[in-house]
Amino acid sequence: MIEAKNLTKVYGDGTKALDSLTFSSSSKSLTLLGKNGAGKTTFMRILSTQLMPTSGSALVEGYDVVKDAKKVRKIVSSIPQEAKPVGISSPYEHVAMYLTSRGLSISEAISRSRSVLKDVGLWEVKDKPTDSLSGGMKRKVFVAMALASDAEVVFLDEPTTGLDPLSRMEVWSILKSMESKLVLTTHYMEEAQELADELLMINRGKLVMSGSPSSLLKKFEGMVRVEGTGEIRVGRTMIKYVRKDEASYYVGKYIIKPISLEDLFIMYAGDQELTYDSS
């Protein structure tokens, strides 16, 4: 279970990244959503004991991330967004060294490294220096390290950034087959839809909403998105939401799109308020 109670983080320059965040989740796969700067990465770093909170508390599988930090580190694996590979080391060496650092024997580390590198599609480049690989492949090296860890809880901060659609689907299939609990952040709404048992949306360090994708999308039940008109501005695009039986008026004049998690993001990750157009 992941729990937070009045969790607050204020950086030295006065930036309040988390503002009394309170929630609990026992879901196998928890996905954090929010704009850049919403507080997602800060939250992930606190949960994985990489960052101290200013106040409040957080628990991972019952262990306090401050008081029981050593115990938390034994049961979690974390791949931060800013992780960079050691250029001269191969993917094979990265995974194997990571596993031995977690206490696995050399033989077990080698066996597990071989298996996971095949699963994530890195077997053909397993012996190449990582600095010779593409950005997407470098990211897959870190995904492989997390997958191989067999930790109780795996934290992944934007795990598929830079991956092509096929590689992303490969990673999704592996993540869904893992026995570990997953906590991840993503800006890909289709990834959140594919992987999340529960969504947690944060805005300006505060909890905006939480729930399963299907339950949250019920807020838009019976509606479609119209682009090109409306009161909601996203960049240069104006948006409104109308009921399906009213959509025919807009056909041929504007772009009509079905509702998706992208609409939750538009309406709740920022400062918009959901309005229904009945004109």
UniProtKB/TrEMBL annotation:
InterPro entries in UniProt: AAA+_ATPase, ABC_transporter-like_ATP-bd, ABC_transporter-like_CS, ABC_transporter_ATP-binding, P-loop_NTPase
Keyword Protein biosynthesis: no
Keywords recorded for this protein, A-Z: ATP-binding, Nucleotide-binding, Transport
One MF annotation (Gene Ontology) recorded for this entry: ATP binding
Gene3D superfamilies, per database record: P-loop containing nucleotide triphosphate hydrolases
Keyword Glycoprotein carried by entry: no
PROSITE patterns reported for this sequence: ABC_TRANSPORTER_1 (PS00211), ABC_TRANSPORTER_2 (PS50893)
Ranges of residues in domain ABC transporter: 2-229
Residue runs in coiled coils: none
SUPFAM superfamilies linked to this entry: P-loop containing nucleoside triphosphate hydrolases
Domain of life: Archaea
Family affiliation: Belongs to the ABC transporter superfamily.
The name this protein goes by in its record: Trehalose/maltose import ATP-binding protein MalK
